[in-house]
Amino acid sequence: MDKVEKIKKCVEESYPGLLKQTFNDNLLSIMLYGSYVSGDFIPGLSDVNILVILENPAPDGLGLLGISGHRMMRNCRITPLIMTRTEFIRSADVFPMEYYDIRNNNRVLFGSDETEALSLTKKNLRHQLEERLRGTTASLRQVIIASRGKKKVLGAGLKGIFGSLKAVFRNLLRLKSSEEIPAGTEETIRKLGSVFDIDVNGFQKLLALRKGEKLDVGSLAAEVLDSLQKLVSAVDAMEFGD
Q1: Within 10 Å of residue 176's Cβ, how many Cβ atoms?
Q2: Nearest to 50 by CA among 14, 2, 93, 26
Q3: Where is the domain boundary, 117, 139, 171?
């Protein structure tokens, strides 16, 4: 069994089985989302995102999951998001970016699709996107400082930044356009440039860097910063009613 098949068995069979065994009737839903579902998953690099809805996420049950499932979660890079149904529904105004993605691209492994009850607005999405873009801009500046001119360190920091930007790109398109969001990251970046009328060459290079291409990370950091700042200005100028 190759690495991909092992991860698939772990994610779609072993881990859901462990959740059912651990939480029994307390378990309401298990939903896969993120890169594992979208097709951007890279074994050994990408995390597996799983939404777990519980009736009552009591500490004793969570502790049991940690004891029995820590090796499985580590080996398969599983990141569970554990919430009650009420918490999930009522936090839609705080996490619209993540919830738009989950609602539009998920796979139910157990129970029902909990996203059907979500109330999502572009007004809340705009606020979260501006916060993420400003935060990413500040983080990249800190990465440049912390690298102390060392290309390897700066390259690693840039790769880490890109992981958080993929969801931002998708939701920027969702905010600006009602058209279908491209499935692949490359197509999403190209469309982002067209819709927002900005140069996305830096983002394209950032994707290439993450895939292993050798690039001048110093000039790349400058390009990415410039594009981020332009996106911040564009989102800041947008207004949506209730």
Answers
A1: 17
A2: 14
A3: 117
Check whether residue 106 and residue 180 sit in a common domain.
no
Domain edge (last residue) among 117, 139, 170: 117
What is the β-pairing status of strands 48-54 and 78-84?
parallel
pTM: 0.81
240 contact partners, CB below 8 Å, separation of at least 6: 121, 122, 123, 126
| Shared domain check, 144 and 45 | no
Q: Is residue 242 part of a domain?
A: no
Indicate whether 241 pLDDT > 80: no
Do 171 and 229 fall into the same domain?
A: yes
> Residue 30, Cβ neighbours under 10 Å: how many?
21
Contact 217, 155 (CB under 8 A): yes
Determine the structural domain holding residue 163 and report its residue range: 122-236
Same domain, 159 and 188: yes
Distance CA 149, CA 130 (A): 29
Per-residue pLDDT tens digits for 148-188: 999 999 999 999 888 789 889 999 999 988 678 887 889 99
CB within 8 Å of 188: residues ≥ 6 apart: 166, 169, 170, 173, 181, 182
Q: What is the pLDDT of residues 96-131, one digit of tens each?
A: 999 998 998 899 999 999 999 999 999 999 999 999
Q: What tokens does 32 get?
A: 């896969």
Residues 151 and 88 in one domain: no
Tell the residue number behind the tokens 């492994």, with chain if given: 109
